[in-house]
Amino acid sequence: MTPLILRSKAIRQLVHLIIDGPTGYRGLKNLETLFHQLGYPIDLLLPESRIKYSTRVLMQVQEDRQLPRLLLELVQSSNSEQVQRQMQAAISDILLPYGFSLERERETAAFRMAPTAVPVPPPTPQELSVPLFQNLPLSEEEVALLEDRWNEAVALHHAGALRMTLLALSLILEHVLSAFLNQFFQQARSSRYAPHSSLPFRDWNLAALLDVAADKGWIRLKKDDLPYRVRYYREYVSPARELREAPLLNVNMVNQTWQQVRRALEDLQVASS
Questions:
Q1: What pTM was computed for the model?
Q2: Which of 66, 107, 192, 243 lies at a 20 to 30 A Cα distance from 204?
Q3: Does the structure show a pLDDT above 70 at 154?
Q4: Domain ranges in the chain?
């Protein structure tokens, strides 16, 4: 199994879960006891805040490859079944962007860390073929440009450029949705998910466009069906956020995104006919 290495955002989330979560390690002595059970000496405790102390020791725990053990200790530290389920769900939410979850084995009731990735078959030649953009409410210039961009996305996919493939697909889907909503302006504005602003559709982010299109029944794809980094692709154009958060990125994600984007475009073709 690939070693689990959390970045700064996940470390902060884990610190707050330890301090203020259901298990309630709200005192320095309690925190000290927790970390001491993992083999870290009591003299680590210095006159510092719970947050600084927990962050410092967590970084050392991670460096020592003891993070999975700590997470299991956290979820099992309560005898309450309800608290254990709450901790399991909270920890899994933190681990999800890294491709892991905290699962409970049915036979033994023991907790274990496991990869969340489910193999997704690569896109078929049909899924990679250029969609019928001419059947959408687009100008001839838009159709030509989107066909060109789609072919570029396919080339990026074959080259194994995962980040740029996702970026290309996000941009294509966002433009088509924006044009579609502009064609059906009144219906789109009447959606309960329409942002409360007078911004034109081209200034809405992809998540908002997906919400409205799904709400009006134009696409089956829901916002949460797409990975966060696809919905909010602008945040990952710069390496800064990726360095800070290490969001999940793998072939399965790209393969699934091809299928989802293709299905959404076909749904829009049907809705516009």
A1: 0.66
A2: 243
A3: yes
A4: 8-115, 125-272
